[in-house]
Please model this.
Amino acid sequence: MLLHIFIQVALPAIIAATIFAFTVSWGEFLYPMAYLYSSNQMVLTVGIISDLIRGDVFEWGRIMAGCVLAAAPPIVIYAFLMDYYIAGLTAGATKG
Amino acid sequence: MSINKVTRRKALKLGVAASVLPLVHIRTAGAAGQVSIALWDHWVGQGNDVMKKQIAAFAEKNKVEVKADLIPSASGQILMVENAEAQAKAGHDIYALSVWEAHNHVDDLEPVDDVVGRLIAKYGKTNDAVEYLCKVKGHWLAVPSSSGTQTKGPEGRISILRDAAGLDVVKMFPGSGTTCPGLDAWTWDAHLKAAEACAKVGKNFGIGLGTTSDSVDFAGSLFAAYGAELVNAKGDITVRSDAVREVLEYAQRLVKLLPKDAVSYDDASNNRALISGQSALIFNPPSPWAVALKDAPAVAADTWHFPAPAGPKGRFLPYLPYMWGIWKFAKNKTAAKELLEYLMQRENVEARENATIGFDIPPFVSMLDFKIWETAEPPKGTLWNYPNHPWHKQVAHIAAMPAPPEIAVQIYNQGTMPTMFAKLLSGQSVNDVMAWAENELESFKRA
Model:
């Protein structure tokens, strides 16, 4: 019953919530910046600026490459799960 | 049945034995406890490596377990962690503090008069800017460090300045020795003439009118050279003075010669201007030169560092110190003090200096004779005049000094001085700019 009814019905909402949670975690900046300062622990968002900007020296090529890498997973996830995402957002929003 | 009676004699013996006990302990790694240090993550990675080796040697010798973290300054991470630790009253024992931060944490820092006193006794005095920023109400709240400390004098293209402006900076400021034949002629008026000549050939001086530190430090050097203070040492607003008017009149002529995007300059813009070959001169530490060694070798080989221009009141070199503070909540203050004293020993400072290709400036004048500044190349001697040598007759200066630090930090961080210049560029009159600045400064005093 759980697998065949509840999960099936709730799937768009579960996927939408998962995407939300992933996007927030993936893009997190403030807390990782406060708590992590070792390069090998750093999340991508903070690592790009902390490792590739040194004082007034900007490694633009690598910064741009890092930004592409950082942007890729959310783009891929949204592209493939867009239908579920929209369904999750609109679930219960329309009548009948 | 015997009764163990504690006599006065026995109690005394016990007390003496207990007091001697700490002297008899087994010296193992970490026996003297732990200490943690947050270091500024140097942009020259080799500098970090040498620092970590020195810390490891200290730990081994003193049987202290030292945890060293490198914290980047990009996007203010080092400031953010510092303030988080100060609020939480937990974190590292020692923290690398930038320019104004000792004053920001007066109540959170352990006085280090003993450490700095011994260093001064051994290596001589520091400069006035260090004292202004590290010493509060007669007490040293931070140990001035070399790591990250920099000056921001002119860094110019030898060929462009020679061909366009007739300034042979290599002859004026030789790459070795203790004399500078061109020093007296290098005034702010000469600077203006050179800026005009270079602008004519499309190589504008890369001086910013933004609110980041390079723009602020340049403006601070210019103000000080004319004796112009926005707020004096007593905290009085002194913006309506002949000296300030003189600076603004000078700036009115200079701003027209700067790049069109000068008002949007940040601390990387001037570097790009020099490295790309678009600019004849910037005010900066030698980081653009070091980058150009790899990315634009011809530019690097044509770059020379030299003292700041002089004005009616003297020659003022922008100086930005880093320092190490010990939090009051530190768990091992004794080891923290010993570590800082060890790191500031001449041989350790010089080893780090060599690794960072001369970028760091030691706070003690007696340490300004390291060989690295004479040998760094190309061109050989380009860095010789980067430190503030005594024969440069320069005053190490931070913009807004000598205003009380709680007001000065606002003048600095809000970029009041370069913003005054930017307003001149937008067409406002000197009187309008002075009135605007006066209003700003009054709000700083109220804050």
Summary: Chain B has a mean pLDDT of 94. Chain B touches chain A through 24 residues (CB under 8 Å). Chain B is about 45% helix and 15% strand.
